[in-house]
Amino acid sequence: MILHKLNGEQFKELVINGAKNLRLNIEEVDALNVFPVPDGDTGTNMSRTIEGGISAVSGKEEKNLGLLGKDLSKGMLMGARGNSGVILSQIFRGICRGFEGKEEVNAVELAKAYQVGIKQAYGAVVTPVEGTILTVFREATEAASKAVNEESTINEFYEAHLKQASISLKKTIDLLPVLKEAGVIDSGGAGYVYIVKGMVKFLDGEKIEQELSSVEEEHKEAAPIDFSAFGADDVLQFGYCTEFILRLQNSKVNVEDFDVQTIIDELNEEDISGDSIVALKDGDVVKVHVHTKEPGLVLHKMRKYGEFLTTKIENMALQHNENLTEEEHTAKKMEHKKYAVVAVAQGAGVEEQFKAFGVDVIVSGNQTMNPSTEDFIRAFKQIDADNIIVFPNNKNIVMAAKQAAQLYKGAKVKIAQSTSIPQCYSALTMLDFSSDDLTLIMGNFNEAIRNVVTVEITTAIRSTKVHGVIIHKNDHMGIVNGKIVFSGRMKNRIIFDVLRKIKDIKDKQVVTIIYGKDVTEEEKAKNMEVLRNKFPYLEFGAIDGGQSVYKYLIAVE
What pLDDT is stored for residue 323 in this prediction? Predict the structure, then answer.
């Protein structure tokens, strides 16, 4: 298929084929992690991100490239998870911004749109690092832009883009010392190359046969209704969870200047008495969530601003009865607070302890399961507070949390600097809002985080060399503040072997050990015996965290 112009329908097919090619190679991308930690998340995060975009345009026949791009970009933005996924969503957000106002583009215009993608992606990262997906995308775009002119085909742009992307990917191993030492190329860059390969394959006439999870889940059969949850004699207690996507209409409002607070104010009026209201505006589209006993009135009133793209109304009595763990639909409305806390955690013991410390909502996530931007927004929806403080607790989750904070308008959202569970544990022990000064509160949290030494102990999934440490498959691997410092097999003294690598350990006072789900009582006892014998000047505490991946998470203070 030779294309001289690219429209929305064709671009959607290119992206779908790219996503399918990534999913076919997802295990290879997941295996490219520098650390031999059983996380395997880069390919998975990128795949779920791009599939989120595809779900947003699935079933739509839209030839207008600008309009298709808006929907695709929004879907990827909300579905973005992990740093690699967030960067990928920003790459496509920039490309799609370059498509705005265009029904189709030629090769030169396509190149200009991809150049907007460079600016958008680099601008989204506080400190861009070369030797990553950013480099691969930038160099590929620059090369393809130089290779095309007004007579070039869309095929020629993507062929040049793929050629340079493949070359740049191979060079990443030399750009980042940590990649060179581990002997791997950048995983995010590899994921991006697989996407572009899939796009080129489509242009060459090869449609990849592969299921995409997000698309499959979007069209799966609805769960059966529990008719017993709301009977003929029951009284409507919880109202309806009402959600819709509204496209603002120029014939009804000034779309460009429309303030989404207008909708929020109307949903708060007495005749609707809206609860858990969230309204997010992106261009000419507004996404709304509200709990109300008058969903029909809501829909009637909203049509004066635009027309609906989607609507969903669910009786919360069913949700209350069926799935109280789906926190967006909980029947209980949280009491209004000035300050509320959201924390990422995994493991029943960790979650229980965090809630005991005062965390309002737990976002489920860990090294292997990074929550998406939309997961954070769902958590924010549950809270009635002026200020929300978020503890991401994993460096690969921070960008999704920040992206959610930028999109959410229902409260002021601040992101704490915690990149580990031990850091969060320590900060939460100092939970104190009495100063009523958000800047001071965040400063105290972040100071507590900086004073914690984080120790993580897990099992190596392959043999390699990282940070000068030779690692053998199945070794117990000790990581201190993100750096591998020890690898060995002595499981009953592994914590001692790692702690003694901390240079100022004699200046510390308290060590809190958070045990993973597979640690036996015998291991706990033997480790504690060794520790108290070797470090008599330290006070040791322990929690049954129940987390996966990391056998031990340790806060040293």
Answer: 41
